[in-house]
């Protein structure tokens, strides 16, 4: 039998390349009939080999197209608007924000949306046509994701800016929430942020170019300090472009929350109110602030800095005995900072009851942690991974029903509620324990130069390395509560103490020389005020 060499057969894994003709049909050497090929006999039998005709196959579906140019830009803004709506809706429905919060977010976004009209019109008409090959890297928009926060090079809003916009809406409504609250809710999944691309409809996702997907995809965990910078830059944008004036923080509530979370005596509340005018703090964002970021200009940093200074005045971290004049003074109480640090560690441990299922704890899991997990903890972690990272919008394999995943949303919600209850109970326990551990010091009435009084021998720490072992846990906990780094808090406290030093020097001159000095301590900058907050990194 005569064989003809052609391409690989491919049927049932057959790799045969030799074929023969039988009754006008092509067969491979192993007997597989070749579909779509047949030999028709000539009417005059002139050519016994016949001629080959091919049966047309159904046209394959074209690859899903992705938009480019203006069309892609408009789609991205629609996707970003959908993310904002989902975030504001989650805050209203799950976190108890007032219903008007969604309207404020919508109005702020409407103002911000006007700035993109000219940018979209600048795109060329040729880029309006959709392209079928979207795997090629785009250079015109990739630079925007690497641009620094708040600079003119940032063309499109980033995902972290959505949190900043929600915070500004809460600020306008004077809600007692902090930047760290928004950071914690985003990390814990209480509002859409981590893997938010999964919540976008697949029809919109498939048509969005890759460089836009990279903007709204989370590649790394954000830090609360970067969110502080995003809020300051966005607020400056609204002020400069629309002349918007934002109110001061609802600082009485925030101050009470900070003091309560740090398990400090409530006497610090009145002390912070007295320190506020001396330090030149307004507890509001500066109007139209541009240029380098200085942490002492952030109102929430101003609050915690005031708490730290008041704490150092009344409850110092050394063993030096100081005696108040009256038993009514706050400094009559003495804090054992070793016990205080122990209570804070116990609070952190009790607040994370539930193993790796605690909200926001799965993101910090490492390879070493996985090796130490129990079977139940591994199941909890894999269930979280499945809910967060698997895309269920795709068509499932027919065999998938034989391997059920057992996703239970109610269980995850119950776990989240139990975590919040654990934190609430742990906080009350820490407050009771810390209050019961307060001691009283000796009271020495009358004026005596030789008697050390509260506030004397005040210690200043200029850098993180200067912190003693007794003060470091307090500074670390305060920095975490405020959403800033430890080095940022130490430098901000040092700058504020420098202002107090200048104020005291001015008061001494007035007393000794009778020369009233009109010094503005809130705006005068020194060499210590040149410390800047870190810029946010690409991909956040």
Automatic annotation (TrEMBL):
Span of domain Rrn7/TAF1B C-terminal cyclin: 223-389
One GO process term, biological-process aspect: nucleolar large rRNA transcription by RNA polymerase I
Ranges annotated as biased composition (Acidic residues): 517-540
GO cellular component, one term: RNA polymerase I core factor complex
Residue ranges annotated for the RRN7-type domain, each copy included: 4-36
Main location (coarse class): nucleus
Sequence segments annotated as region (Disordered): 514-540
Record-level Gene Ontology MF annotations: RNA polymerase I core promoter sequence-specific DNA binding; translation initiation factor activity; zinc ion binding
Intracellular or extracellular location(s): Nucleus, Nucleolus
Residues annotated as signal peptide: none
Domain Rrn7/TAF1B N-terminal cyclin span(s) in chain numbering: 80-202
InterPro entries: Rrn7_cyclin_C, Rrn7_cyclin_N, TAF1B/Rrn7, TF_Rrn7_Zf
Keywords per UniProt: DNA-binding, Initiation factor, Metal-binding, Nucleus, Protein biosynthesis, Transcription, Transcription regulation, Zinc, Zinc-finger
Protein family per UniProt: Belongs to the RRN7/TAF1B family.
The protein's name: RNA polymerase I-specific transcription initiation factor Rrn7
């Amino acid at each position: 039998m005569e064989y003809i060499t052609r391409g690989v057969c491919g049927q049932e894994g057959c790799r045969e390349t030799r074929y023969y003709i039988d009754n006008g049909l092509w067969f491979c050497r192993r007997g597989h009939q070749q579909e779509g090929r047949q030999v028709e006999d000539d009417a005059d039998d002139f050519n016994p080999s016949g001629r080959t005709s091919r049966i047309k196959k159904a046209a394959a579906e074209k690859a899903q197209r992705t938009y480019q140019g203006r069309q892609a830009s408009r789609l991205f803004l629609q996707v970003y608007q959908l993310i904002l709506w989902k975030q504001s809706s989650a805050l209203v429905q799950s976190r108890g924000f007032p219903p008007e919060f969604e309207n404020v977010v919508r109005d702020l976004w409407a103002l911000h949306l006007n700035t993109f009209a000219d940018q979209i019109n600048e795109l060329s008409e040729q880029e309006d046509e959709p392209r079928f090959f979207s795997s090629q890297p785009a250079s015109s928009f990739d630079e925007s994701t690497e641009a620094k926060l708040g600079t003119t090079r940032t063309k499109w809003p980033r995902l972290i800016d959505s949190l900043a916009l929600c915070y500004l809406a809460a600020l306008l409504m004077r809600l007692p929430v902090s930047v760290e609250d928004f950071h914690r809710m985003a990390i814990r999944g209480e509002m859409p942020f981590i893997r938010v691309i999964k919540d976008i409809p697949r029809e919109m996702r498939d048509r969005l170019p890759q460089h836009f997907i990279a903007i709204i995809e989370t590649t790394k965990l954000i830090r609360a300090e970067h969110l502080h910078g995003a809020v300051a830059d966005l607020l400056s944008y609204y002020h400069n472009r629309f002349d918007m004036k934002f109110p001061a923080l609802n600082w009485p509530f925030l101050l009470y929350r900070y003091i309560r979370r740090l398990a400090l005596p409530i006497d610090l509340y009145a002390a912070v109110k007295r320190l506020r005018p001396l330090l030149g703090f307004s507890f509001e964002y500066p109007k139209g602030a541009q240029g380098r970021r200085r942490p002492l200009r952030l109102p929430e940093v101003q609050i915690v800095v005031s708490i730290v200074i008041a704490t150092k005045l009344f409850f110092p971290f050394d063993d030096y005995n100081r005696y108040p004049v009256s038993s009514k003074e706050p400094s009559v109480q003495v804090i054992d900072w070793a016990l205080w640090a122990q209570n804070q560690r116990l609070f952190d441990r009790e607040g994370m009851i539930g193993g790796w299922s605690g909200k926001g704890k799965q993101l910090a899991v490492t390879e070493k942690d996985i090796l130490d997990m129990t079977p139940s903890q591994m199941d909890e972690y894999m269930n979280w991974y499945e809910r967060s990272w698997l895309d269920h919008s795709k068509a499932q394999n027919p065999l998938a029903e034989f391997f059920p995943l057992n996703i239970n949303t109610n269980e995850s919600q119950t776990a989240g509620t139990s975590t919040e209850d654990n934190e609430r109970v742990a906080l009350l326990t820490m407050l009771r324990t810390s209050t019961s551990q307060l001691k009283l010091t000796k009271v020495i009435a009358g004026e005596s130069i030789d008697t050390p009084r509260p506030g004397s021998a005040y210690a200043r720490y200029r850098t993180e390395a200067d912190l003693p072992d007794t003060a470091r846990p307090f500074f670390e906990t305060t920095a975490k509560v405020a959403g800033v780094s430890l080095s940022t808090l130490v430098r901000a406290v040092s700058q504020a103490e420098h202002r107090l030093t200048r104020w005291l020097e001015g008061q001494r001159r007035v007393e000794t020389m009778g020369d009233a000095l009109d010094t503005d301590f809130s705006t005068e900058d020194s060499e210590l005020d040149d410390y800047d907050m870190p810029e946010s990194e690409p991909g956040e």
